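Example record for the data management plan.
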Amino acid sequence: MDKWRVYAVEHLDTKEKGMFKQLADLRETFWIKYFNTLTPAGLNMILPINDATYTDLKGGEIKRDIKLEEPHISKNQLVPYKVRRYNSRNYLHRIQYIGHLIEQKKFHNGTLDRYTAKNQYWILTTLENSSSDDLQVDQETYWILRKALEDKLSHKHNHVAIQRATGTLLSITLAHTNMLNLQLYKYFQDNLWTQCLPSSLGTIKPEIRFRYVKTLGRRVFNYMSWRNSKYEDLVIILDTQCRCNTRDYKTFIDKDYGHVITLDSRICKNSHLQYLLSLGANFRPAIIVDTTKLLNEIKQAFTKIVEVWSRKYTIQIRELYEWKGLCTNDIGIQLQRLISNIPGPTVWEEADDQSLVELQKDLVITYVDKAPNNFAYICKKHYIQRLINEFKAPTYLECKETANELINWHYQASTKYALRYNADMYNRLAYAYTSHKATKVTAEVRYIAGSYMCSLQPLSILINTLLNTLRPSLCALWDTLIYDKTLEPVSIWMIQNSKKVVERIKLFNRTLDFKAKTAVTMETYDVKTLYTNIPHDDLILKLELLFKEIEINSNTEIGFRMKGKTCTLVEGNIIETGKQKGDAIYNMKDLLNMIRFLVNNTHITIADKIFRQCIGIPMGTNAGVNIVDFYLVKYELDFMKQLVDKEKWELITKFEHTMRYLDDILSVDNEFFENYLYNDVTLDGIHGIYPSNAVKLQKVEKGSRINYMDVTIVRFEGKHKVFANKLYTQCYDKRRHGKLAALNLIKYPSASSLLSQAVGHNIIITQCHRYAILDMYITDFIKDTVQVLGDLVRKGYSKTKLLEKIKHFLLSYKQKVLYGIAPFGIYWMIKKEVQAFKFYSSSEKQFV
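Corresponding structural encoding:
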C-alpha cells in the first residue's frame, strides 16, 4: 500500500477557501459524470501538484496537457487537466486491492462495507466470470473473496415466513370460487365463537384445506380406457375402417400418416365443449352446486374435528356439539349469500358429456409431451396400431403367467427388502400408453409404462431413494479419479437442472482467453430411444463395477439406513442404537439386487395381454432416470480416466465443459467430441465414450448460439463491463419457437378455472426466481418477466396484483441486489416496460 499515490485530476488556482469549496463542487460533479465513476462526492481538498508521472498500479500513467471540451463551455475555451488512465468499471483494481488485504491478513468482515451493494454484486460477477490469473490473484485469495461476497449479498433470513397450522385438518371441496371468502378461521380464533369451547381445549388452529374438483384432463383423457379390456377388442378396432376421411374429420388429417392427428379443439362440434377444451387439460370447470349437499359435507368435516378433539384431549363430545351447531348454521347462511348457480360458459353441462362420448368413439385423447396442459386428438385405430407395433420381440416377449401370479411374485420379492405396503392397493401391472410429441417435424410418440399404484412401484421408489443418496459419493469418485495437480478441477458431466448450466458457463468464462476473441462453437446431441436400447447384462455389469469403485474410493463399505422416507448414507460398521436405529439397513449388494430384479421383471400390459421387457428399462418407473444416469456416468468416467492415465491434458481441457442432462448432451468449445462418440472407435489409443449398441446419438444443433434445455447460450457481442466477448445465458422457452410457436399451446391456468386466484398470481413469483437464475443479463430478465406478466393478464389475472407479486419477489430475493441494481430500481424498469407492453393484438376480441 505504500506504493500507491493519489494525484489530483485538476488543479484549481484560488487562494480563497470559500471560493474553492463552491468551485470544487461544480468541477467535481463534472468529473464524476465524465468518468462515470462510483466514487461519492466530497473528497476534494487543496492538494499540491507534484511532478510524478507514474504509479505502481497497472495502467497508472499520467497524461499531461490533454484538452477536454465541456458541454457548458464554449468550443474555443479549453480546460487543461491531468488524469490517470484506468478502467474504473471493470472492478479489477478493487479485486486486487481486497486481495492484497487478504494476503496481508488485514481482511475482516467490515472490509466489504466500504463498497455499496451494487459494487459488491459486480465484483462478485467479475469473479464468477474471470479466472484468478486474469484477476492477478492467487486461488486461495480468489475463493476467500468470492465466499465473503456471496455471504455478504445473501439474505440471512427468509422473508416469507410460513407458519404451519397445528391441530387437526378441516378438508372441504371447493365447489365454488366464492367459498374462498368463507371466514372459517373465525370459528377457531374469535372469542365470540371460541367461548363455547371447553377451556381445557386451549387455542387450537386447524389446517384448512380445499379439495379441488376434477380437471378437464380427468374427464376427457381416454388413452387408458382399454386397460381392463380384452386384446381381441383392440384387434376388432384395427380391422374396422376408421372415420378419418369423413366430413367431420377430413380437415384434421396428418399428411404424413393419413390419420387424424391434431391439437385443434375445433375437431369437437359442440361449441360449448370446444370452448372448454381450448382452456387446457388442467382447467377445472365450474359445477352446479347443491348447497344442501355441500353443507352436509361441511358438517361431516366438523364432526371429524370434534371426534379427534374428543379422543386427543379427553373431552366429552356433547360439550362440543353447541359450538359445532353454531358454526355450521353460520356457514349455511354464508353459503346462501355467496353461492349462486347462474349458468356460465365455464360450467360443465350434461350436453358436454354426450358430445364427449361421441368424440371418444373415434378418437384417443392424450396429452402433448412437454406441454401436458394441451390435448392431442389422435385417430383411435392409428393410436392402437402404433402402440401394438412397439411391443414386439426381441425388446418385449409375451408372458404366459397371469397378472395375479406376477403381482404376488413382485410382492414376495419386495418383502425381502423390508418393504411393507398394502398389496391390495398396489394390485396391478404397469400399463402401456403414448404421449404425442408435437416438437418433431413428423409427428412422433413417446412410449410410456404407467407405473402409478403398480406392484413394483414401492420397490422402484426405494431404489430411487437409495440412488439419490448415493449421488454425492458418485461425484466424489469422479473428483478423485479425474484429477491432476496441473489441471483445474473437472466437473462431472451429469447435471440435475438448468441452474448447473449457468454455473458451468461461468466456469467456462473463467478458463478461456476471450481477449483473443477466438470463436466458440457449441454442439448439442440427443440420445435416440435410450431407455429401450440398454442391454440388461451390460447395465448390471456397469453398475456393479461402478458401485465397487465408489466403495474403494470411500475406503470402506457403504450402507443405507432407511427411517421412514428418509435415507442416510452410512460408511463403515453400522451400529443400531438409540436415535440412529432405522427401519431397514441396506448395502450396495442389496441395491444391485433390487435393480437386477426390477429390470428383469418389468411387466407391461396392453389390454389383457402381458409383456416382459427384455431389453432396456421402462420409461415411467420411478427409478428409471437415476438408473440410466448412473449407467451413462460409468462410461463417461471410463473415458475420462483414459485421458488422465495417458496424460492427454489438452483433450481433458476440451472435455471438461461437457454437460449431460438425462439424454441431452452439450459440448462447449470441443472440436474433438464428435470423434469420440462411441467406444468402438479408437483414436490415438483412446477409446470413445458410449456403447454404440445401446446409445444412438443424434446431433441437434451446432453453432455459436445454442439452445440447451431451457437455456440459450450465446456470446456477448458488444461492450459490457463483465460479459464482453464472453458467453452468457438467457431463458429459452421451446413453446415460443419453431413448430410449437405456431400451435398456440396452453401454458398457464385460466383465471376462470375453479381454483384459488392466488395460484395464478404466484406463478409469476416462481417464474421470476427461474429468470433470475437463467438470465445473466438484466435486459433478458425484464423482457421475460414482462412476457409472463402479459401471458397471465391475457388469462384474466389482475395486472395490479401481478405487479405487486413482482415487487414482493424483488424485495425478498435471496440477494440484496439483483444485477447490481436495487429492488425498486428493477421494479420501476419493469413497470415502465409493462406500460408500453401490448397485452392484446388488434385481432383479439377479448380485452381486460
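Summary line stored alongside the record: Confidence is low (pLDDT under 50) at residues 38-89, 156-166, 841-848.
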